[in-house]
Amino acid sequence: MTVLPQRYKGESKREKVEQMFDSIATRYDLLNRVLSGGIDKSWRKKAINQLLPIKPQSILDIATGTADLALEAVRLNPAQITGVDISAGMLEIGREKIKAKQLSELITLQQADSEKLPFGDNSFDAITVAFGVRNFEHLEIGLGEMLRVLKPGGMVVILEFSQPTKFPIKQGYNFYSKYILPGIGQLISKERSAYEYLPESVSAFPFGEKFRGILQNVGYTDTKCIPLTFGIASIYTGRKK
Questions:
Q1: What is the CA radius of gyration of the chain?
Q2: CA-based max dimension of the chain
Q3: Which among 45, 129, 116, 41 has a CA at the least distance from the CA of 82?
Q4: How far apart are CA 99 and CA 155, in angstroms?
Q5: What pTM value is reported for the model?
Q6: Measured between alpha carbons, how far is 117 from 145 in angstroms, rounded to an integer?
Q7: Is residue 150 within a helix (H) or strand (E), and if so which, with residue range?
Q8: Which residues contact 216 (CB under 8 A, 6 or more apart)?
Q9: Within the chain, how many helices (H) and strands (E) appear?
Q10: What is the C-alpha to C-alpha distance for residues 21 and 86, in angstroms, rounded to an integer?
């Protein structure tokens, strides 16, 4: 289970993560652009590119947030994209963005828990997650639910923060995450603790080969890990037999 800042302890991680993201929903997109220098856009494009060979018609975007990854997936020309998230505030922003692009018939968003997905077995050709799996209260259960609703032969693509391991990127990234990022987060969103949570959750997450091993243990096959930008983030892929 990922570490939570003190103010978010005492109840379930799911409830606290929901509360935290509701509190920063209106500033979330701006913060992403500022804190990443806009590079998160290229990460999402690379993640969606992993699905080009299978041409999925039905896509489920877990922890969709404000629907950035779901909107990026439109260029795959699927028949339907479904986004789910536990934060009603984030989903409200996502629906506004989808409506503005006149994509409401293609992309539907609904509030749902990643550990209790409201879909039948073998429902989707592809499942995507961007910066969401480290927020799962029980990682293996959430990954298992994703596998359950994925069709045989389908692909999962997970984009998640990881940790640089080489000098001096590792040291610079750790300093930025611990001392700079929370201050910028507080300045823009007035919620410093939400951005103290980010480096804490990243440091607690089993990234790289460890996470690839977890995917395999859950039941995914043909798993891969693709590091991005000196290891600051990684793309993980897997298939269902």
A1: 17
A2: 48
A3: 129
A4: 28
A5: 0.87
A6: 7
A7: strand 150-161
A8: 223, 238
A9: 10, 7
A10: 9
Which residue is associated with the tokens 């995914």?
220
Please report where in the chains the tokens 């536990």 appear, as a residue. 86
Question: Which pair of tokens denotes residue 38?
Answer: 């806009």
72: its two tokens: 């990026």
H helical segments located in 38-191: 39-49, 68-72, 88-100, 139-149, 169-175, 181-189
Q: pLDDT tens, position by position, for the chain (241 residues)?
A: 344 444 444 456 777 776 777 777 666 766 666 656 779 999 999 999 999 999 999 999 999 999 999 999 999 999 999 999 999 999 999 999 999 999 999 999 999 999 999 999 999 999 999 999 998 989 999 999 999 999 999 999 999 989 888 888 889 878 877 777 777 767 766 666 666 666 777 788 999 999 999 999 999 999 999 999 999 999 999 999 9
User: Quick one: 239 exposed, middle or buried, by C-beta within 10 A (0-12, 13-18, 19+)?
Assistant: middle
Amino acid found at 149 = V
Q: What are phi and psi of 163, to 5 degrees?
A: -130, 125
Q: How far is the C-alpha of 24 from the C-alpha of 87, rounded, in Å?
A: 10
Question: Distance between alpha carbon 56 and the CA centroid of its chain, in Å?
Answer: 19
Structure tokens, 180: 């700079």
